[in-house]
Amino acid sequence: MEAYKELTGVYPSSVHADKIYRTRVNRAWCKERGIRLSGPPLGRPPAQVSLQAKKQAQEDERIRNEIEGKFGQGKRRFSLNRVMAKLSNTSETSITLTFLVINSSETAQAVLLSFFVSIFPTYYNFIQKH
């Protein structure tokens, strides 16, 4: 979060962290800085939860799952779990390049899909319906 602040000049409005990082210390640190930490509060769950809080929790989980899915994709399809560089700089470069390739492949898929739809709109509509 400090690196994000250095880059943008402000802290993020929310953080979507794994359960292991939602400690009392981290929650207090985020609260001091006005950062919303996703996930249920510590302690006993409340008897009633507002509809707005439920929707916010669902949205937070959706965002977190999307991020976790990218890590899983990087490990399965792009061998991110096999980085064996000796130096930390080399490891960081390898990981950065892996995510660059992941993002490039998604962009290429989107471009190809839009090209396909523009050439064969009736066929694409047929596929979407069935």
Characterise the protein shown here:
There is one protein chain. By secondary structure, the protein is mostly helical. It is built from 5 helices and 2 strands; from the N terminus they run αβαβααα. It has a domain at 83-130. The chain has a two-stranded parallel sheet. The protein is 65% helix and 3% strand.
Helix content: 55-70%
Number of helices: 5
Order of helices and strands: HEHEHHH
Let me know the largest β-sheet.
2 strands, parallel
Please mark out the parts with pLDDT under 50 across 5 or more consecutive residues, or reply none: none
Mean pLDDT: 87
Strand percentage: under 5%
Distance between the termini: 45 Å
Shape: extended
Query: What's the number of extended β-strand segments?
Result: 2
The helix/strand class is: mainly alpha
Cα-atom Rg, whole angstroms?
20 Å
Spatial order of the strands in the main sheet? 1-2
